Amino acid sequence: MRRQFVRLHRWFGVLTALFLFVAGLTGAIIAWDHELDAALNPSFFNARTAGPTQSALELARHVEAADPRLQVTYLPLAIEPGHTLQMIVQPRIDPATQQPYALDFDQLAVNPVTGDIQGRRLWGAVSLSRLNLLPFIYKLHYTLQLPFTGGIDIGTWLMGIVGIIWLFDSVIALWLSFPSFKAWRKSFAFRLKRGGYAMTFDLHRSGGVWIWGLLMIVALTSISMNLAAPVVRPIVSKLSTLTPDPLNNPEILRAPQPGDQVLSRERIVELAEQAGRAQNLRVPPGGLYYVPFIHAYGVGFYSPGNDHGDMGLGNPWMYWDSATGKLLGKSIPGTGSAGDVFMQVQFPLHSGRILGLGGRILVSALGIAVAVLSATGLLIWLKKMNARRRSAQNANVARDAGRSAARP
Predict the structure, then answer these.
(1) Where are the transmembrane segments (predicted)?
(2) Please, are residues 303 and 78 in contact by the beta-carbon 8 Å criterion?
(3) Quick check: is 238 in a domain?
(4) pLDDT digits (tens, 9 = 90+) for 387-396
């Protein structure tokens, strides 16, 4: 049995090592994506003009009026002092061609005082320029920058499958790390002074044992983040009732109908403020998201700059039909069934933000550790493969020598 598990661990490790190496290093970086992005691109984050700022809703109207080719789809509703207002846009339909206008950007940095656009970029574009570096790394982390193919997000599915293999492999690795009850201390030891292969082996085995629980959490949450709708939610729903996801529920959503009017952002913000008071939320609406193809608005409740949720289970979100103003659903952290809370906790756990700054530091260190475990695993595999190859060559040489000696 042990021999079979060793083989499984070996090949699971070889299959996933490169993916986990990339995911570990990029995860360590994007734990600080906002801070690093701002440091690299001050002109994109810092407003050039001081003075009284316009409201976010006014700035969105100004941007759309200045360039009729686009519409604002994500809008922070409050402006951090001294910062630009960063909004997400998408192209409108060109009446002449009935195709979306060609835009080479989807994110704008707007001066909140003058309404001027200080910067444009295509978020997640394959580019190592300073302006695009952090979004590129962020997208690389969970999609490997692989494109949609046939309506399928290949990269997201692939990294989710890697997470499943990693989860099973972690269980196998723990079992293999304790071959004998009497020698259990060896599985926690590091022979750093010996260096060479002994140190590499201990970094891989003992390093994995010390942080095994954290690795399991990251593996599980990576599956939940990438394969929530097709895999995780159906499994969780067998164990606990789940509140329907407002953005993925055909019974709630509807396609836009001819003649449908879209409620103004101002009206949706009014509805959100009323709903927030009814839910006794401590923070006002902080961001508004419009999804044209499902005819819905989403509103997040958070303070300026806290769109990721820097502590606890994240931010509340509510969703409205963009034509009727009907409340489609809500996700209030810490409320709902056990299954709902389980789904809510996945991103805060994966990002470390559930523990605030300390959690982000821990996740960043853990990302580096995952990269080290992947690299040391490959080195061990290569060394053993070379040893087997040399052994086979020596056996062949000995056999040929024996045959030659036996000849008359």
Answers:
(1) 12-32, 154-178, 209-229, 361-382
(2) yes
(3) yes
(4) 888 877 777 7
What is the spatial distance between Cα 105 and Cα 87, in angstroms, rounded to a whole number?
11
For residue 46, give the DSSP letter. B
State yes or no: pLDDT of 122 exceeds 80.
yes
Query: Which tokens belong to 87?
Result: 């909004």
Residue 319's Cβ-count burial label (10 Å; 0-12, 13-18, 19+) is buried
CA–CA separation, 389 and 401 (whole Å) = 18
DSSP string covering 313-348? T---EEEEETTT--EEEEE-TT-S-HHHHHHHTHHH
Alpha helix segments (H runs only) across 145-226? 154-176, 196-210, 212-226
In three-state secondary structure terms, 20 is helix
**Cα 407 to chain centroid, rounded:** 67
Taking Cα atoms as reference points, which of 17, 105, 117 lies closest to residue 62?
Answer: 117
| Domain of 37, in residue numbers | 1-46+146-243+338-392
Please name the residues in contact with 282: beta carbons below 8 A apart, sequence gap of 6 or more.
none
Residue 317 dihedral angles phi and psi, to the nearest 5° = -135, 145
Inside any domain, residue 106: no
3-state SS, residue 193:
coil
- In the predicted model, what is the mean pLDDT of residues 217-233? 95
pLDDT in tens, 346-391: 999 999 999 999 999 999 999 999 999 999 999 999 988 888 888 7
Q: Is residue 361 part of a domain?
A: yes
Find where tokens 């192209």 sit: 91
Structural domain count, the chain: 1
